[in-house]
Amino acid sequence: MKVFLLGYTPNPVELVALAAKNCYSNSTASQLRDDMTPEKAKEFVEMLASLGHESPIEHASFTFAIEGVSRVLLAQITRHRIASYSVKSQRYVSEKEFEYVTPPAIAEDAEALAAFEEAMDADRASYKKISGILYKKYCAELEAEGKLDKASKAAARKRAGEDARFVLPNACTTQIVMTMNARSLKNFFSQRMCNRAQWEIRELAEKMRELVVEVAPELFRDAGPGCLRGGCPEGKMSCGLAAEMRKKYLKEE
């Protein structure tokens, strides 16, 4: 898994502070901007956080490149609907030599790993076989119609891949460009950094949090699993480690 912060709203802390101050001032936005300093912005954003006033942080957004994650993770992350996603297409990109994610529990067990790798090899072989059969079929049809040229061959190959991809496994890797505003990110961290979250998306959330804390610490200092800001939201399903989580992320003693 690789995660990069491709871009983000310039001066996100100052922008959030300006947007929030706009709610409580008769001054114009330009006047508020002229009066804003990094120190004032930091102080005001920290005050907002202490009040739980999060709507102003929606004005700041962050864009990530996510590589080497599974289609399992893709199915989970797109449930976070207040976001924008661009995902590598299995229609337009051949998966004949697809890479895959191996769950740690499988990687640690020799017998399970052997069976898993055998399944991945079989999926590759099936994808190649089916896409090859369909490609020949479509080319034969085009040739019979007198339409077999370079462009139509490319279209036939894409069409064959559209149906061959149905045999691809959830483990197959993909790459995602994702944009979220700061409020949605904090909600994402709250759910996906929880110890009960699935291991792969939890790892992703950890990496993403590290990146945004580095560029906007005032917005994300208290970001993390839901138990950082009160009782565990998992109720009777709690892992029982809320104190440890607060110590880890909030540096509480």
Fold topology:
Blueprint: E1 2-8, H1 12-21, H2 29-35, H3 38-51, E2 61-70, H4 71-77, E3 84-87, H5 104-107, H6 110-144, H7 150-164, E4 173-181, H8 182-192, H9 199-215, H10 217-220, H11 242-250
Antiparallel strand pairs: 1-2, 2-4, 3-4
Helix pairs in contact: 1-3, 6-7
Query: Would you tell me the structural class of the helices and strands?
Result: alpha+beta
Helix content: 40-55%
Shape field: flat
Q: What order do the SSEs take from the amino end to the carboxyl end, as H and E?
A: EHHHEHEHHHEHHHH
Largest sheet, order of strands side by side? Answer: 1-2-4-3
Q: Helical element count?
A: 11
- Here the CATH topology of the largest domain equals Gyrase A, domain 2
Our estimate of the beta-strand percent is: 5-15%
Question: What is the strand tally?
Answer: 4
Features:
single chain, Gyrase A, domain 2, alpha+beta, 53% helix, 4-stranded antiparallel beta sheet, 11 helices, 253 residues, 12% strand
Question: What this model shows, in words?
Answer:
With 253 residues, the chain is of the alpha+beta class. It has 2 domains: 2-87 and 173-250, Gyrase A, domain 2, CATH 3.30.1360; 108-167, no CATH class. Helices cover 53% and strands 12% of the residues. It is built from 11 helices and 4 strands; from the N terminus they run βαααβαβαααβαααα. It has helices at residues 12-21, 29-35, 38-51, 71-77, 104-107, 110-144, 150-164, 182-192, 199-215, 217-220, 242-250; strands spanning 2-8, 61-70, 84-87, 173-181. Strands 1-2-4-3 form a 4-stranded antiparallel β-sheet. The longest helix is centred in the middle third of the chain and has 35 residues, at 110-144. The chain is flat and about 75 Å long. The chain starts with a strand and ends with a helix. The mean pLDDT is 93.
